[in-house]
Design brief:
Blueprint (H helix, E strand, L loop, with lengths): L2 H8 L2 H14 L6 H10 L1 H7 L2 H13 L4 H19 L5 H25 L6 H31 L12 H8 L1
Helix pairs in contact: 2-3, 3-4, 5-6, 5-7, 6-7, 7-8
Length: 176
């Protein structure tokens, strides 16, 4: 069966409209921007996904590290998702989520530099020094991200949880 046929059969009509509007906007038609905004207001999951720069950064680093191998990409995505979940915990604040994203991104950057340094192309001594400086810089950025996350966690009041995480009915029952 044709993949495009499957895609169009399961795709909501709003996606086709949005794609057409985006093409017009990219072609210079500014009159479609109001409709694009209207769609994004009605379907916030679209802008939340497309606008999630952390996801795009992670995908870019993963593609580089995995050398576009589908298996390696899938495994790395699972590993980073697991890392993100462990670092974020059950009820992370927005600041904690941003810092966790930074820790994951700097970790991927560090691993890229380490891989490049471990298998350097035949080059000059100056190129070797450059790779070493890149590795040192990536290590410092990663450790700074980890330290910032740790510091924020130490300074946050314990038990801080977003309002939606608190079950008001259970809280009333406990308070009596």
């Amino acid at each position: 069966m044709d993949v495009e046929l499957l895609k169009s059969a399961s795709e909501p009509p709003i996606a086709a409209e949005l794609r057409a509007l985006v093409e017009l906007a990219q072609g210079g038609d500014a009159t479609v921007l109001a409709r694009i905004r209207q769609i994004l207001n009605g379907y916030p999951e679209i802008w939340q996904y497309v606008g999630n720069l952390s996801v795009h950064v992670e995908q870019a680093w993963t593609a580089i590290l995995a050398a576009h191998s589908p298996l390696a990409i899938e495994c790395m995505q699972r590993a980073t998702a697991e890392m993100r979940a462990e670092l974020a915990g059950e009820h992370p604040t927005r600041l904690e989520r941003l810092l966790v994203d930074q820790v994951v991104a700097t970790w991927l950057q560090l691993k890229h530099v380490e891989a490049a340094s471990a298998d350097p192309p035949h080059g000059s001594l100056e190129q070797g020094r450059f790779r070493l400086r890149c590795a040192d810089s990536a290590q410092k950025r990663h450790l700074a991200a980890v330290q910032t996350l740790t510091t924020v966690r130490a300074l946050l009041p314990s038990g801080l949880a977003p309002a939606q995480a608190v079950n008001v009915h259970e809280l009333k029952m406990q308070l009596g």
